[in-house]
């Protein structure tokens, strides 16, 4: 993360501002809604791994960000292929989540301008267009309201 410029006559850096908001968003949600292991676990199934989790595990093991436990087999070509096979499903689940979140945001009274800001988009129209694209390709394509 880069620091904001100290010179008040320099224009703000939009990429740095988005990066700062992303960090602040993670911190806020973690502090308010995921402070305990129980709170963090409520978004996961206790016995079945989700597609995004499987992809992440394989990617972390391959990259060295995580290490296999004793007795755990090394990631092989079939594991990589399996993870790649799950990417479209994980992306689809994220699209469903985003479309649902946009619908709920509109239902809670957020304006398209507020939504555009949250998504890092420049205009309310861009946010509406994004929602329309998501709604057209997801299973829960409901009306987010105009």
Can you offer a commentary on this structure?
- This protein is an all-alpha fold and 146 residues long.
- Helices cover 62% and strands 0% of the residues.
- It has helices at residues 14-33, 37-41, 51-63, 77-107, 112-119, 124-137.
- Helix 3 (51-63) crosses helix 4, helix 4 packs across helix 6 (124-137) and helix 5 (112-119) packs across helix 6 (124-137).
- The longest helix has 31 residues, at 77-107.
Tell me about the largest β-sheet.
none
Low-confidence runs of at least 5 consecutive residues: none
Shape: globular
The helix tally amounts to: 6
* Overall SS class: mainly alpha
Q: End-to-end span in angstroms?
A: 35 Å
> Could you tell me the mean pLDDT?
89
Level of helix content? 55-70%
Give, in order, the helices and strands: HHHHHH
Proportion in β-strands? under 5%
Tally of DSSP β-strands? 0
Q: State Rg.
A: 19 Å
């Amino acid at each position: 993360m880069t620091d904001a410029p100290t010179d008040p006559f320099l224009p703000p850096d939009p990429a740095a501002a988005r990066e700062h908001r992303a960090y602040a968003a993670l911190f806020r949600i973690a502090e308010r809604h995921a402070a305990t292991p129980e709170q963090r676990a409520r978004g996961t199934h206790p016995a079945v791994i989700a597609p995004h989790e499987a992809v992440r595990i394989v990617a972390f093991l391959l990259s060295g960000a995580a290490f296999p436990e004793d007795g755990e087999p090394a990631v092989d070509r079939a594991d990589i292929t399996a993870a790649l096979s799950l990417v479209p499903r994980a992306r689809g689940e994220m699209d469903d989540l985003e479309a649902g979140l946009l619908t709920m945001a509109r239902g809670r009274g957020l304006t398209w301008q507020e939504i555009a800001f949250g998504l890092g988009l420049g205009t309310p129209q861009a946010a509406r267009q994004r929602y329309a694209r998501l709604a057209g390709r997801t299973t829960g394509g409901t009306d987010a309201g105009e």
